[in-house]
Specification:
The complex is a heterodimer of chains A (113) and B (116). Chain A has no helices and 11 strands. Chain A has 113 residues and is an all-beta fold. Chain B is mostly beta strands and 116 residues long. Chain B has no helices and 11 strands. In chain B, strands 2, 4, 5, 6, 9, 10 and 11 form a 7-stranded mixed beta sheet that branches. Chain B has a 4-stranded antiparallel beta sheet with strand order 1-3-8-7, with no helix packed on it. The chains are: A mainly beta (113), B mainly beta (116).
């Protein structure tokens, strides 16, 4: 059973546009929600993360919006650049126990010049 | 480079052979995780160490898989009697001990395993 559901599976955006990727979760015990960026043949790189005590977090061109009541969170990439072309994964983890991450299925983003 | 390192980066083996992968976490990170990632999917949790203690194992970690972290430093993941279904990227991640950042996991480049 997929604990974190991610959409869309793929996304094509014009350079300078806004890329939006959405995720939803069911387990209310999750309290940490990171986004990872992965290039082909590389390991995932931590991009930005949020905890449920805030509804939004911004770092440079990347923003996470978090809706606790809807159990949804999203990544917004402003002024998308060709160098942003990669696969993006949302994830979630719990405070207790191993804190292992449950990943979404990924979104392949292509930014065209 | 002070990031997580993994060795080897690529491994091709024949079905039935044993393979061993190594992970060196970021210095002073006491938590270490192994994940497996198949093509087109997100990483899936395999096992977790806090210092030298293996505290959690996923149901994905069959009896053919074993992991160790002697002295709480580097870790090894061994797969015995490999099967074609074991072909995947094996990722290692580590996280720091402080209470606020312990969720932040930093991944290594992975070991790509191909079982022929």
């Amino acid at each position: 059973q997929q604990q974190v559901k991610q959409s869309p599976q793929s996304l094509i955006v014009q350079k300078g546009g806004i890329s939006i990727i959405n995720c939803a979760y069911e387990n209310t015990a999750f309290d940490y929600f990171p986004w990872y960026q992965q290039f082909p043949g590389k390991g995932p790189a931590l991009l930005i993360a949020i905890r449920p005590d805030v509804s939004e977090k911004k770092e440079g061109r990347f923003t996470i919006s978090f809706n606790k009541s809807a159990k949804q969170f999203s990544l917004h990439i402003m002024d998308s650049q060709p160098g942003d072309s990669a696969t993006y994964f949302c994830a979630a983890s719990k405070v207790a126990g191993a804190n292992n991450l449950f990943f979404g299925t990924g979104t392949r983003l292509t930014v065209i010049p | 480079d002070t990031g997580v390192s993994q060795d080897p980066r690529h491994k091709i083996t024949k079905r039935g052979q044993n393979v061993t992968f190594r992970c060196d976490p970021i210095s002073e990170h006491n938590r270490l995780y192994w994940y497996r990632q198949t093509l087109g999917q997100g990483p899936e949790f395999l096992t977790y160490f806090q210092n030298e203690a293996q505290l959690e194992k996923s149901r994905l970690l069959s009896d053919r898989f074993s992991a160790e972290r002697p002295k709480g430093s580097f870790s090894t993941l061994e797969i015995q009697r490999t099967e074609q279904g074991d072909s995947a990227m094996y990722l290692c991640a580590s996280s720091p001990p402080d209470s606020y950042s312990y969720n932040e996991q930093f991944f290594g480049p992975g070991t790509r395993l191909t079982v022929l």
